[in-house]
Specification:
This protein is mainly beta. Helix content is 5%, strand content 34%.
């Protein structure tokens, strides 16, 4: 099932007469406030969505049923923010400031829900609604552990195992772009903003950039101590400075390489690392694999923030994989339960003050997921 952990009971509503008196008293001339004033001053009235308190800028669902992300209130490292946001359209949540301050009314805690896409190991991509229903699925040609959802709605993914390459498919399962790799392994990659494809091949390890016509734009040799092709490269990303940031699984290192393949930054000691993302503040966010934790490290290699198995034993963290930074600053974290599955969660949302506000743990729908991405953020 998909559920918010540790749900709190709803607050009791004040008697109707008291609410009316307060509402009328807000206007000096005794007249009811305008529709704009009522909208700005009373979240939850007139069809407004519930705001989850303490979730770092609550996500909600509008009265029309469409997802409404709590865009206001980003959360920086170690500093949870309340969130002023949500769309102004359709009676969505939170028009009136941080819950409990200013004009924004404190409303009952509501469930955080996510429309997600996930890869069930070893290669079934599944789209799941925010009510936990399977909407779409696609079987990849071979072992697949990550994907991108493109702006046109298509899905891009590298695939390895006995068939190495990459594909872009549409929702009708038509292959609109493909590449066959001569390497011994290919599990990491992404579609770049310029339409090129960045792939992390193994055996030998290299970062390969291809244009839409599959012509090689750039190839960077990647040095790693891991000899086995399967354990060389997981996630790989192009940075704003043109360098690439590679998660070297077997070596347990996040490494930034320039165009010549020279190491310009690295962080080691993360066994079977799966993901490394460069944040706007210059820090690097790491999905820690066998370390069973997510950590943020500074350019100097200091741990600025981390969350692991001991912070929430009830999650059953086994192998931390994908990490997505949501608009409100929370993290959506994947948890691979192994080839045979397990009892832990497939993914969870955690605030920067280490509150788990959502989890994906439907073991009927998914046995073991490697990447989970929120599509409604």
């Amino acid at each position: 099932m998909i559920s918010p952990p540790n749900a709190k009971p709803r607050r009791a509503l004040a008697p109707l007469a008291a609410l009316v008196a307060l509402w009328l008293g807000a206007c000096s001339d005794g007249a009811p406030p305008s529709s704009d004033e009522a909208s700005a001053g009373a979240a939850g009235m007139g069809g407004g969505a519930l705001v989850q308190s303490g979730a770092g800028g609550g996500a909600g669902v509008s009265s029309s049923g469409s997802s409404s992300g709590g865009n206001g209130g980003n959360t920086s490292a170690g500093t949870p923010a309340g969130g002023a946001g949500g769309s102004a359209a359709g009676g969505s949540a939170g028009l009136g400031g941080t819950a409990g301050s200013g004009g924004g009314a404190i409303v009952a805690p509501g469930p955080v829900k996510h429309h997600v896409m996930a890869i069930e190991y070893p290669g079934r991509i599944v789209e799941i609604s925010d009510t936990g229903q399977k909407l779409w699925e696609h079987q990849t040609p071979s072992l697949t552990v990550m994907f991108n959802v493109l702006a046109n709605g298509n899905i891009f993914y590298p695939h390895g195992g006995d068939k190495r390459g990459a594909q872009e498919v549409d929702k009708q399962h038509q292959v609109v772009w493909s590449y066959t790799s001569p390497a011994a392994e290919l599990l990491g990659g992404e579609r770049l903003a310029n339409g090129h494809s960045l792939l992390g091949e193994g055996g030998p390890p290299k970062a390969l950039e291809l244009d839409p016509a599959k012509a090689q734009v750039r190839s960077i040799d990647v040095t790693t101590t891991e000899a086995a092709a399967h354990g060389q490269i997981r996630h790989i990303h192009r940075l704003a400075n043109g360098n690439v940031l590679v998660a070297l699984e077997g070596e347990g290192a996040a490494r930034e390489l320039d165009a010549a393949g020279k190491t310009v930054w690295e962080y080691k000691g993360v066994p079977r690392i799966h993901e490394a993302i460069r944040l706007p503040n210059g820090n690097t966010l790491i999905g820690g694999g066998d370390a069973k934790r997510v950590l943020e490290v500074t350019p100097a290699g200091q741990v600025a923030w981390e969350f692991g198995a001991t912070d929430a034993p009830e999650l059953g963290l086994a192998f931390v994989t994908s990490v997505q930074v949501l608009k409100n600053g929370d993290l959506l974290v994947g948890n691979w339960l192994g080839a045979g599955g397990g009892t832990g969660v497939h993914a969870f949302q955690v605030t920067r003050d280490k509150k788990v506000v959502w989890k994906l743990d439907d073991h009927q729908l998914l046995k073991s997921a490697t990447t989970v991405t929120a599509l409604d953020d």
